[in-house]
Design goal:
globular, six-stranded antiparallel β-sheet, about 50% helix, alpha+beta, three-stranded antiparallel β-sheet, Serine Threonine Protein Phosphatase 5, Tetratricopeptide repeat, Transferase(Phosphotransferase), domain 1, Phosphorylase Kinase, domain 1
Length: about 400
């Protein structure tokens, strides 16, 4: 196939994105819908291989049944007959970005960013596992990092339904998957479930923490021995809880690993990479001190204290907690008194839709009306741009 060729009268192939053992992935344009897509075309050599075609069709059926923001969406599967040859193809969401493997070649990413990506992969895996699908080939090459910063899982070509019997071996005894990321049960042919994907994710997480894989044997036989018998090297992380999680993900026995991807995601959210956060009580005392500054005629000092305090409250109490949102209300009042009523009105407007507690919402609406009228009478004055989401995220 060549650039400019139109596949099946619909998909114009524009540029090769990459090639592998099973075929070529192209950027393409869907003339029916009018959108850019990615098209994976099975190679002519593999098109005559019944097992390869079966795997290709299985990927279409498996990925096509899954819907999650962190799984690359599959739009279409087709086959074009060209003389004696059949061209099989998949049409997928085009993700502008690069695989995690390319990111790792440039060095170990920032750990906070890495944990965000792994949490997002967990969301995708959780959706797949709940649908009865085990990916079986989680590795950096199959995790796309979009230019938007989001992580997405792709390539369900060797996925297995949980209702299917069997483990990680084919009928001929060939191991399925990528050796450095294969769980022990995949090597032994034991039954597999979603915890095999969690083991592979543990290998990826080990890489993101250390810059290398836990097992790096030069031959598949030695690699198998390491996965089945050798303990992984210890991981040193800012939060010991992260090192414990990595060790548990790499447990030889699936029963010793976390129960599911949702648990892994929850535990990753609890990892603390910096100094321990102060308690909610300590943060509320600081907010009270800010109020005292404002009430004493120092609204600028109140703003200075509250602006970094609110993201801490969001992390400790939650971004939707009434304590966090009432402190945002306090900040709006002192912004208005510090010469930024327009910023106060914008913040109060967002708060009026975010607060569910009736009394707190009534207070916000009262002050919103007051400062909106003040702005209409005298103009908004000099303001600093500020949104509720930016404020909560710090």
């Amino acid at each position: 196939m060549r650039a400019g060729e139109v596949l099946d009268g619909r998909y114009r192939l524009d540029r090769k994105l990459g090639a592998g053992g099973f075929g070529v992935v192209w950027t393409a344009y869907d003339s029916n819908i009018g959108r850019p897509v990615a098209v994976k075309v099975l190679s002519e050599e593999k098109a005559s291989d019944e097992e390869a075609v079966e795997r290709f069709i299985r990927e279409a059926r498996t990925a096509g049944s899954l819907s999650n923001p962190h799984i690359v969406t599959l739009y279409d599967y087709g086959r074009v007959q060209r003389g004696a040859l059949s061209t099989h193809y998949l049409v997928m969401e085009l993700v502008n970005g690069r695989p995690l493997s390319a990111v790792l070649r440039e060095g170990t990413p920032d750990l906070a960013l890495s944990l965000k990506w792994v949490r997002q992969v967990c969301k995708g895996l959780d959706a797949a596992h709940r649908s009865g699908v085990v990916h079986r080939d989680i590795k950096p090459e199959n995790i796309m990092i979009a230019d938007s910063g989001e992580a997405k899982v792709l390539d369900f070509g060797i996925a297995r339904l949980l209702t299917q019997s069997g483990g990680g071996l084919t009928s001929t005894g060939v191991v399925i998957g990528t050796p450095p990321y294969l769980a022990p049960e995949c090597w032994s042919g034991a039954p597999i479930d979603g915890r095999a994907d969690l083991y592979a994710l543990g290998v990826v997480l080990f890489q993101l923490c250390t810059g290398q894989r836990p097992f790096n044997a030069g031959s598949p036989v030695t690699m198998m021995y390491q996965h089945l018998n050798d303990p992984p090297p210890p991981v040193h992380t800012p939060d010991p809880a992260l090192a414990v999680l990595v060790r548990q993900l790499l447990a030889k026995d699936p029963a010793d690993r976390p129960a599911d991807a949702a648990e892994v995601r929850r535990r990753l959210r609890e990892v603390r990479l910096g100094p321990e956060e102060p308690s909610a009580e300590v943060l509320r005392r600081r907010a009270d001190q800010a109020w005292q500054h404002g009430a004493a005629g120092r609204p600028g000092e109140a703003v200075r204290i509250l602006t970094p305090l609110i993201p801490q409250l969001a992390r400790v109490c939650g971004p939707d907690d009434v304590r966090t949102l009432r402190t945002c209300h306090d900040l709006a009042l002192w912004l208005a008194r510090d010469g930024s009523p327009g910023a106060a009105v914008a913040l109060l407007t967002e708060l009026s839709g975010a607060l569910g507690e009736p009394d707190a919402r009534a207070d916000v609406l009262r002050d919103l009306d007051r400062w909106r009228r003040a702005c209409e009478r005298g103009g908004p004055g000099p303001d600093r741009p500020l949104s509720l989401r930016q404020l909560l995220d710090g």
